[in-house]
Sequence to fold (246 residues):
Amino acid sequence: MAELVVALDFQTGAEALDMARKLAGIAPWMKVGLELFVAEGPQIVRELKALGFKVFVDLKFLDIPNTVRGAVRSCVKSGADMLNIHAAGGVDMATIAIAARDEAAAELGLAEKPLLFAVTVLTSMQDTDNPILRGRPASEVVMELASASHAAGLDGVVCSGQEAARIKAACGAKFLCLTPGIRMPDPTAPSTNAPVDDQRRVMTPEAAVAAGSDYLVVGRPITRAPDHLGGPAAFARDVLRRMAQA
Fold:
């Protein structure tokens, strides 16, 4: 069954931990991204682990292979249960990242290795507005990067729910899809989605799970949920309910 990852996109550790406590016992995973990690460092990962969460450290490593090797090792040693690199870094970088993950996990005596994903095309990108795509459809570029990541031996990719079904068909059911860009249906306008902010290629929780996504990363729809409607805990439960129905 797909799992929920709540994105703690906050400026301070205090804010992030306050939100995490509100979701204790509801959401199994928390995501620490660039903003929070730069502000607080590895300590925020350890504090979330102490609260009982699994932690996805979302830093999207992309550099020369030796630098990525050191970054991956440090990330694993911080306590990350999941981390990611950019698929655009190529096979050599991916292979070294996998080896670094395995080495660090062995040194720590971990029973399970942290999951290592590759970012394909950010869900904020569309076909017409980004030179990285060079005028090609995002879905086409995603499939190329996903196939290369699978061949390199990574656990899965970060992708839109719109590409999950094709990735599963091409790479197999065990190749994992982690999907951001999740938005809830707008109850005031059933035929449309809620505001997507800076995300472009979005999906509802039900549609993403039905398409084959294994992990859903949800931030603002949960963390900015209004208190008069039950707050973050109520919205997290609603996301989980929708995921289970799919």
Observations:
- The chain is about 45% helix and 15% strand.
- The two ends are 10 Å apart (CA to CA).
- Residues 207 and 246 are 7 Å apart (CA to CA).
- Residues 187-196 have pLDDT under 50 and may be disordered.
